[in-house]
Sequence to fold (313 residues):
Amino acid sequence: MGQTLSFSYYLRQGRAVLLRCFGDTPCPVLPETLGGAPLAALAGYCFSDKEPSLPAGTQVLRWGEDFSHPLCGNFVQSISLPQSLESVGSSAFYNCRRLEKLEFSASLTQVGSDAFMNCDELALLRLDGLPRDAGGLRQMLAQLQRGVTVEFAPAGQPAARLLFPEFYEELEENIPAHIFQRQVVGVGYRYRQCFAGQSLLLAEYDRVFDTAAAQESPAVACQLAMLRLGLPLELAPAAEKAYLDYLTRYADKALCLAVEQKDADTLAFLLQKLNPSAEARQTARTLAQRLEFAPGAALLTQPAPRTEKSYDF
Fold:
């Protein structure tokens, strides 16, 4: 079903800057042009429930028919930004507390401050491109301290999925000297440093896993490994072994995680690669039955593959 959207905007050097989107869908797909001008930017507070930023003396233009329902704040659940978009203004998604997914392309290279403040449910960033040309992804991740999954899908075809775990900052006071020291907690900060300019370095990303395996919970580390193995773009053999070794060690938790996510493909992959114990399979099968995940229960009911005996005389 198509979307019926209306827009208020202004022109800056022949390019459209979106002030507000109007409509009745919580998942708007923004167009490449407005009134014939390429849509190049989102104004500050564009999708916030606050008034968007408008330079003094600027003429507001309108495109569309119905301007009765602005798409902003808690109403918005996902947003698809066009290939033409180059920048996002400060606080553009401020207080979009139900925003779960944002789609964008590598042409988006500038992200204003506090663009995602209070976007507590934003869990998926989908980039129409590859890690070597990630556009403004680095700036986005720096503002998103919660755990977030990034999917690289050039032309809509998934090529890689990566988890960037949570991190947070603490201030510790040296009371006698009244000096505050900033401390970053969580391996998610290190994952966010695996960039060179706008390129995400997958080899650097994979090297952080040793630290993640030691510091993060098995649930987080298993998710890191499962996503990386599921679409192993530029995955070196040594890194692949490290991920598989960890999942084998925590096979029960990995199986249960796939069941909780109701991901039959990942579950089948784990059963094939890990050859988990009968106890681990039973634990996951019980969970699948409780969650009424029939495909998972069926996979876990199948007998484990036999391993050939070897004799050393």
In short: The chain has a mean pLDDT of 93.
